[in-house]
Amino acid sequence: MKRVAVMLCIAVWLSACGPTADPVVVATAPAQGGALAVTTEPAPTNPVAGQPSPAAVTQGEIAVSDEGYAHVEVGSEITYQHYPPASGPHYPVTIQYGLYEEDVPEGYWVHMLEHGAIVVLYKCETPCPDLVQSLGDMLDSFPLTKWNNRKIVIVPYQRMSTPLMAVAWDVQMPLDRFDAQALIDFYARHVDQGLEDVP
Question: Which of 45, 46, 142, 198 to pair with 69, CA 20 to 30 A apart?
């Protein structure tokens, strides 16, 4: 009886994940800078992929048209309709939540948006250690998710007209200056609203 139950569980698991599931690569870096280290893990299922993402926006936010969610080969060039992207093709890779002080290609953090994370982009025309310090200092201020983690990625990014922008799946909030409360409020409104309900 126990063997039948185990076989049934394996059959259900294979039908859920099956050969069509993309492998997921986990890329990690220290919470404040460093190079990405890449490892592979099983892919999560995506029960709502392909459904439109309802982007409810409040004042100061911009709804961005959805560009899909296709996985592409790691390192391949990706062209987006909108910069910064708020959806679209991306690498089947997850990166560690936290603050990055070096550029992280869009294909990595768009995947985190799909997971329901919030990405905060910052642009410095000249070195801006005070801004980076302020962003790092507020990491623990973001509320815990239902997964008991903080789904926040903070990365430098040059292809935007404002010095800061918060991004969720299909939503952007440009900021002309650092505003911790606005970032926390955006996070609270949009975290876990991506296509994949995963940690």
Answer: 142
Who contacts 123 (Cβ-Cβ below 8 Å, separation ≥6)? 156, 157, 158, 160, 162, 163, 164
β strands within 14-103, DSSP E:
24-28, 37-41, 62-63, 93-95, 98-99
Residues in the chain: 199
pLDDT tens, 87-99? 999 999 999 999 9
Does the pLDDT at position 180 exceed 80? Answer: yes
Looking at the DSSP bridge assignments, the partners of residue 153 are 98, 119
What is the DSSP-derived secondary structure letter of residue 49? T
Query: Which residue, among 106, 178, 121, has the nearest Cα to 152 in the 3D structure?
Result: 121
Give the whole-angstrom CA distance, residue 100 versus residue 155: 5
Look at the alpha carbons of 157, 151, 192, 107 in this order and tell me if their dihedral is positive or negative.
positive
What's the CA angle centered on 80, arms 78 and 82, to 5 degrees? Answer: 155
